[in-house]
Every structure is written in structure tokens, then in C-alpha cells.
Amino acid sequence: MAAYDTRLRRLLGGAFWLALYVGLSLGPLAVAFLYRGHPGRDFWTELSVALGFVALAMMGLQFAITARFRHVAAPYGIDIVLRFHRQISILALCLALAHPMILFVTRTDTLGLLNMTAAPWRARFALVATLALLALVGSSLLRRRLRLAYERWRTLHGVLAVLALACALVHIELVGWYVDLPWKRALWAAMVIAVVALLVYVRIVVPLLLLHRPWMVEEVIRERGRSTTLRLRPVGHSGMRFLPGQFAWLTLGRSPFAIEDHPFSFSSSAEERDTVSFTIKAAGDFSASVASLEPGASAYVEGPHGAFSVDRYEGDGCVFVAGGVGITPIMSMLRTLADRRDPRPHLLVYGARSPDELTFRERIQELRTRLDLRVVEVASQPPPGWEGEHGRIDPALLEKWLPTERERYVYFICGPGPMMDAVEHSLRRAGVPWPSIYSERFNMV
Fold this sequence. Notes:
The protein is α/β, with parallel strands linked by helices. 48% of the residues lie in helices and 17% in strands. The protein has helices at residues 2-33, 43-65, 70-73, 78-106, 121-141, 143-146, 150-175, 182-211, 285-289, 327-339, 361-367, 395-401, 417-429, and strands spanning 215-223, 227-234, 247-252, 262-265, 276-281, 298-305, 318-323, 345-352, 372-379, 389-390, 410-414, 437-440. Helix 11 links the parallel strand 8 and strand 9 (372-379).
């Protein structure tokens, strides 16, 4: 009954935030047309304007989505919220582009607005806003192909977002059709104030709070799979409580005001009181530099975040499926379950290219002495004499190892995107109910 009540609360919470988002997205449209008609304006012109207003509202709400408010993210998990942020930005771009395109097709006289030397300022600001939005979405989708460093992309992302929204608001003000009443102008001013307040909160208030809660790197531990574990100890405060499987944004050796925080899962037990640990695989400039850190380095931790945790869902046992460094949040859950002396049966299916890539391999074996835990190791390129499973985690392998009463278990998946997609599909084919499958994806850009 308790599990049902918890799920119901999350469902209602998720429905509330989704309904609020839809209402706020469409709200400016209602404001624009309320009480004041526009005789002589044809349907296509009004549709064009409507799409522009919805796109603008979505752009403003993007600042709220990325502000990492825990109450907003709680029903979904912040990884899902950030994926929504990415997908909805594409929709906002399409609506923003549809706004002028409809006018260009239905009213050919508006094509003259593309001549920037003769066009009025309202058209110039509209063009800058559109180009900034195109650059913002394009640089995000193509960041890896462009080899754009995360820190540079993030700075560019913020600048382009502010530029696009500011120019769009100036465009509306100069057009003047839909902000011609004092109360409408007041609502648009409130929107601007809200966006500025969000920027101040994210870039000033949160770093100030972190500045008064510093951490120190106590230990640097080399792990298998080109990974490094950082054990952090709080300095002058009581530390952080988190749920096993959650993650936080980590800033190392710099001021919390630097735009260089990165999301990493906790790998330590949630039952530990004095320290927290993160395990980071060398995959880029920042992550590769972690191994060279020395004990005593300063750090800042913003969180915790995420809904990927055994503490949020109930079952007769857990099935964990991990690929590569995706073992990190699962290790946190396993360590926590062991510290709690959890009596339920659990299964871990862990895949990597080779045994040397199986991070925490020895520590997982040690956990088997403290947990009712079966471990299935899978190597896609195993060495001679390998006694574990060969190949990839596919339907046949899962069918071989899944528990008989599989619908009574809770399933947690973390790893590369293609692996997770394949495992989710395989579990559904094996008869696992969709509500029992939970995954964590970290392709946030």
C-alpha cells in the first residue's frame, strides 16, 4: 500500500508539473489575444503570431527547466527533465521558424523584411533571435562532431539563450500589436523579471551557497577501466545525504562560480556519514585530469539529484544491468544494500569490452559475501580462458539469467545508450512489466 501511495504521489506530481508547463507555454498566447481583436488580420497571420508566442514562452521556460529545482525533477528524475529540455528546444525552434515562414508564404510582401539594410528594427531583432536560436540548438546537437569542449559549449549555450530570448522580446515590443495594454505589458515584464531571477539564482545564489559548503579530496583511487574514484570529505559542515544511485554536479579545484561543473553519480554507500565518493572514467579533458588530482584539492558538490534509486521503488529483489562505467550508480545501490543487510535476492549483469574494463570487479565479488547477489560478467572481447559470458547483453543472455518470477523484481539499467535501448527492449520481450524498468542516461548534451 505504501508503494502504491508513493507511486500515486509521483504520478500526480508529474501530471501537475506537466500541466503547469503546458499552461505557461500557451498562456502568453491567451494574453496576446485577450480582450483585443485585430480586424483585417487573416487566419494565417494570426496563426503565425500564435506559433511565435508559443515558441517564445517555451524559450523562457527552458531557463526554469535547467535550474535544477529538485521538486520539479522529483517525479521524473533530472536526467529525464534535461532530455525533455533538449527535445522541447527542437520543437521551440521549429515553431519559431514557422512563425516567419508562414508570413513569407501567405504574404509575399513580407519578404522585404529579409533585406536587413532597409528592414525596420523589429525585423532585425527577429532575425538575430532566430539565428541565435539556430546556433544554440545546432551547437548542442553537433557538439561532439564539432569537438566543442563541454565548458566552451556551456558558456556559448548560455550566451545564445539569453541573446535569443532578449531579441525576441524586443521584437515583440517593437511590433506592439500584442503588448498594447498596460496589464499585458506588465505580464511580459513579469516574464522578463522571472528569467532574470532564474539566471541570478543559478549563477549567483547557488554558487554562493556552495561556497559556504566546501569539500576536500581525501583520497584518489585508481580503478579498472581507466576510472578514478575520488573520496571527498566535507570541510566545516555536516556533508550531504543522498539516495543510493543519485548523482551531483561536481566542481574540482575551482570556484563554484566557474562554469565547469560536471554531473557524476555517487559510487559510495548512502549509509556512509563522513564522506562521499564519485567514480569517473577518463573520457575527455576534464575526466582525464581527475587521475592527476592530489589529496587536499578543493571541491564543490551541488545536489543530490536523480530518481534512479532503489529507495524509490519496491520489489522482491533487484536486477541490475550495467555497461562500462554505468556500474557507478549501481555500485552505490549495491553498497547501500549491503550496509543495510538487505536479505532479498539480487542479480547483477555487468558487461564491458574486456575483464580489465569491469570497474569494481574485485569489490563486487566482496559484496557477494554480504548480499544474496548473483553476478554475471559479460565480455565482448574476452581473453583466452575467459569463464564468463561472451558477446553482448542480448535477449538470449538475459533469458538465461533472469529470475523465474521476474515480474516481482525491480530492474535498473545504466550504461551506453544503445546497450540500454537493447536491454529495455529485451526485458519487455521477456515479460517484464514496463513500470518495473528504470534507467539512467547521462547524454545530457
